[in-house]
Specification:
Radius of gyration: 32 Å
Structural class: alpha/beta
Number of helices: 35
Distance between the termini: 30 Å
Bound molecules: phosphoenolpyruvate, magnesium ion
Largest sheet: 8 strands, mixed
Strand content: 15-25%
């Protein structure tokens, strides 16, 4: 079957987002349910991928476009660029995942020196020349890569010459003159005149949209949003309808419920006599949707009706773009609307209560990433706070930082470690760098649908928009708050912004815990909670707990964290890193152990350490009473407990030069030299320590089991898992196991799978995964150390993720997200699956878990569910997120 590259809007549906992009698929769906959509067609992402790969559109594309264009022309009774009554089209990007404003659009394709006259005869001179001017400007910038200021400066000059403040004050003749000037710019910059042939314009615009997929802005956005660079964009070619054609034309954006709270109602903004981009860009302050009733009653009623139909059809909050051309309503876009994290939880529960969706569907509609956002702290305003202004609450969260008025500076300040609040009149796609670098975003224009708001919500950054009281002077780098004796802020002054309420405060306001965290802490009773967010989170986490197969444990190495983990719902400890107990005052003892020259010295150091370790373990057993506690024997390379090699060598050299013998311990220096690791993540660590430092593991095992005995003597219960790190071969494990079993028997335990004391291993080296069938023979359980497994499978160091070449890899799309954050399911994940399968072939029912950072990462949790693990273990704070995602994984896996 040959690949088709073009689909009419009447052919697709909402489930074809991968092929038609989100916009194209939803346009098709609206046509399917009979809503008024301007006719058009979608060029598939397949075509874009061919273009990106070969540098040319597929050969079949031109013919298919001709065929589908003819269909649109027939439906409209007009032809593209007809000199007397031209059909005009828009060419817009539309990827599988929404990337607002990141790619290109060209409007009014089909206008040229002849058809502009035809349009003028029908719709008026001013409108026709303004439309042609817009085409030249967009085509010049997008298709021909001409700097936008080349055009903007001419508009400014024309306005200055006419004494005009706004574009609207320019006359038809002024705009006609601008058209001539713009054509001159194009010819000068490219060496060729503006293409007059409508079809040539169309083909060039389509290719420009394909290219915009790899534009700098789009690449940066995808990296931020973890969208794969391989997807490509679809292109929608659609009949133009004009919201700026007359006084009874207009355009707007609306939601079927409040995207901030989930309340049902009439939410949206519109502008009369304007084009869609004017509303989205926040350039003119839009009016609230309910006022449309007075302007265009019939269109308003029809819009409300369409909104209700769309929400009923999608069974979810929809966000909609519409245009009214001379009183007639057209639907230009819809999609399941973005919403704040709080609204996602609330809307999901409201829809369950309204009988629209069931519990499982509600659980599908919320994410661990959203729950994470809800656990961020908020402002504590109980003290003295100075409110500067209150504006649109565009993206929730509390942010404190120094005000910076442009994006380049914001990125630079943040690079120096400053917390920054980016303050702009409005943002545009070029501000992305500054937005990412900032703690929060504050604009003086635009509403909930402005660029700043949409992007900030996507990034999870707090944002306050439309703060009209703030008068920004970019030259003087000041922000003056309107009103009597208005405060004047200078660049660098501290402000606090609350994206949940829209408030802006002077200086740094203290922050307090979120109610969601208080609920998990047990401080708020969900049965009597006033806050419907708390109720919604409680309901959905409860559903998740009922659905999930994966148990959730915590990584914790002290009683306080363990207690918190239990409050957050942890069902045990999946990893207690004993090295964290060897720091502080105890470092001295570890140093003694390492430097001991004979058995007696070593024994003395171990004897001193054992009771201290035992005390630690008793505290943890108490906090985790009744639950399994997995304790890992010492893992890190010993140099981590010794002074740094370089500083010690320098001190020794200085001492020698000064003739100060004995200042630096030669013995210590020799040890530091001996143990220095060129690659700190390989070498003498993990089980290798246990096998080469006599008595070390034995001391730990004794401390663990003595602590467990003491715990039981106090009436405590639970179980203990002794875990051996960095095994590569079953023989290593056998040696440690023999030693551990002997000690266990001596202390009255008979270790084994499913008993109160078990002995198992981490799987964190490829060789361990590859020989898991053998290793399982000596292991009561496996726990995947996916940090090391990622490191050793890829040959990366964890430090590489901190910058260096990782950012280049992310840019080039080698991976869309760091494999240390989200498990590399294809590579590292394959080793995990293999080890689970072969381990269980040897030992049916072998308990398996994961304790690397991935245990708390939403996407990775889904992988571990499908790989058949028994539990995930993550930091205490991420336990609720893991519970939610484990529940989602269970219902989404089939
Ligand atoms: C791991 O490697 O995934 C792990 C949990 O151990 P650590 O991070 O302590 O090396
Ligand atoms: Mg490890």
């Amino acid at each position: 079957m040959t690949t088709r590259y073009v689909f009419d809007f009447a052919e697709g549906d909402k489930d074809q987002k991968a092929l038609l992009g989100g916009k194209g698929a939803n346009l098709a769906e609206m046509v399917k349910i009979g809503l008024p959509v301007p006719p058009g067609f979608t060029i598939t992402t397949d075509a874009c991928r061919v273009y990106l790969k070969t540098g040319a559109a597929p050969a079949e594309l031109a013919g298919e476009v001709t065929e589908h264009l003819a269909g649109v022309e027939k439906a409209m009774g007009r032809t593209l660029g007809d000199p007397s009554d031209p059909l005009l089209v828009s060419v817009r990007s539309g990827a599988m995942f929404s990337m607002p404003g990141m790619m290109e659009t060209v409007l009014n394709i089909g206008l040229n020196d002849q058809s502009v006259q035809g349009l003028a005869a029908i719709a008026g001179e001013r409108f026709a020349w303004d439309s042609y001017r817009r085409l030249l400007q967009m085509f010049g910038k997008t298709v021909l890569d001409i700097e936008s200021h080349e055009f903007e400066s001419l508009i400014d000059a024309m306005k200055a010459a006419r004494g005009a403040k706004q574009d609207l004050e320019l006359s038809a003749a002024d705009l006609q003159e601008l058209v001539a000037q713009f054509k001159g710019v194009i010819e000068r910059e490219t060496g060729s005149p503006f293409p007059q042939a409508p079809r040539a314009q169309l083909d060039a615009a389509i290719e420009a949209v394909f290219r915009s997929w790899v534009g700098e802005r789009a690449v940066l956005y995808r990296r931020q949003e973890r969208i794969s660079h391989d997807l490509g964009t679809a292109v929608n070619v659609q009949t133009m309808v004009f919201g700026n054609m007359s006084e009874d034309s207009g355009t707007g954006v609306c939601f079927t419920r409040d995207p901030g709270t989930g309340e049902k109602g009439v939410y949206g903004d519109f502008l009369m006599n304007a084009q869609g981009e004017d509303v989205v860009a926040g350039i003119r302050n839009a009016r609230p949707l309910h006022e449309l009733e007075g302007e265009s009653p019939a269109a308003y009623r029809q819009l409300l009706d369409n909104m209700a139909r769309l929400e009923a059809h999608y069974k979810d909050l929809c966000d909609i773009e519409f245009t009214i051309e001379r009183g007639k309503l057209w639907m230009l876009q819809t999609r399941v609307g973005k919403r704040t994290a709080a609204a996602a939880f609330k809307i999901a529960c409201q829809l369950v209560d309204e009988g629209v969706i069931d519990d499982d569907e509600a659980l599908r509609r919320v994410t661990g990433a959203q729950l994470t956002m809800l656990m961020f702290p908020r402002f504590d305003k109980s003290g003295d706070v100075t409110t500067l202004t209150k504006a649109v609450a565009a993206s929730p969260g509390a942010a404190v930082g120094r005000i910076v008025l442009n994006s380049t500076d914001a990125a630079e300040w943040a690079g120096r470690g400053e917390r920054v609040i980016l303050v702009r009149t409005e943002t545009n796609p070029d501000d992305l760098v500054g937005m990412i670098a900032s703690e929060g975003i504050l604009t003086s224009r635009g509403g909930k649908t402005s660029h700043a708001a949409v992007i900030a919500r996507g990034m999870g950054a707090p944002c306050v928009c439309g703060a009209e009281d703030l008068l920004i002077d970019f030259a003087a780098k000041t922000v003056t708050v309107a009103g009597d004796g208005g405060v004047v802020l200078r660049e660098g002054d501290l402000v606090s912004i609350d994206g949940a309420t829209g408030e802006v405060f002077l200086g740094e306001v203290p922050v307090q815990a979120s109610p969601v965290v208080e609920y998990f802490e047990g401080a708020i009773d969900p049965a009597t909670a006033q806050d419907d967010l708390v109720t919604a989170v409680h309901r959905l986490v409860t559903v998740a707990d009922a659905r999930r197969r994966l148990a959730v444990r915590a990584n914790s190495d002290n009683p306080e964290d363990s207690a918190r983990a239990v409050r957050f719902g942890a069902q045990g400890i999946g990893l207690c890193r004993t090295e964290h107990m060897f720091l502080g005052d105890r470092r001295q003892l570890v140093e003694q152990l390492i430097l001991a020259e004979d058995e007696a010295g070593r024994a003395a150091a171990l004897d001193a350490l054992r009771p201290l370790q035992q005390g630690d373990f008793e505290g943890i057993f108490a906090a985790m009473d009744g639950k399994p506690v997995n304790i890992r024997l010492l893992d890190p390379p010993l140099h981590e407990f010794l002074p740094d090699l370089t500083s010690l060598s320098v001190a020794a050299a200085v001492a020698e030069a000064k003739g100060e013998q004995g200042t630096v311990d030669a013995h210590l220096l020799a040890a530091v030299h001996r143990l220095h690791e060129a690659n700190p993540m390989l070498g003498l660590r993990g089980v290798r320590l246990g096998l080469t430092i006599p008595g070390l593991f034995a001391m730990q095992i004794r401390a663990i089991l003595s602590a467990f005995t003491a715990h039981k003597a106090r009436g405590g219960t639970g179980s203990v898992e002794i875990m051996v790190p960095l095994i590569g071969d079953v023989r290593e494990l056998r040696l440690v196991r023999e030693e551990a079993e002997a000690i266990a028997r001596e202390l009255g335990f008979e270790p084994g799978a499913g008993t109160e004391v078990s002995i198992g291993t981490m799987i964190e080296l490829p060789r361990a995964a590859l020989t898991a069938g053998q290793i399982a023979d000596a292991a009561d359980f496996f726990s995947f150390g996916t940090n090391d497994l990622t490191q050793t499978t890829w040959g990366f160091s964890r430090d590489d993720a901190e910058g260096g070449f990782f950012s280049a890899y992310l840019d080039k799309g080698v991976f869309p997200v760091s494999p240390f954050e989200t498990l590399d399911a294809t590579g590292v994940g394959r080793l995990v699956r293999l080890a689970v399968t072969e381990g269980r072939e040897t030992k049916p029912g072998l308990k398996t878990g994961v304790c690397g950072e991935h245990g708390g990462d939403p996407e990775s949790v889904h992988f571990f569910h499908t790989a058949g693990l028994d539990y995930v273990s993550c930091s205490p704070f991420r336990v609720p997120v893991a519970r939610l995602e484990a529940g989602r994984a269970a219902i989404m896996a089939h």
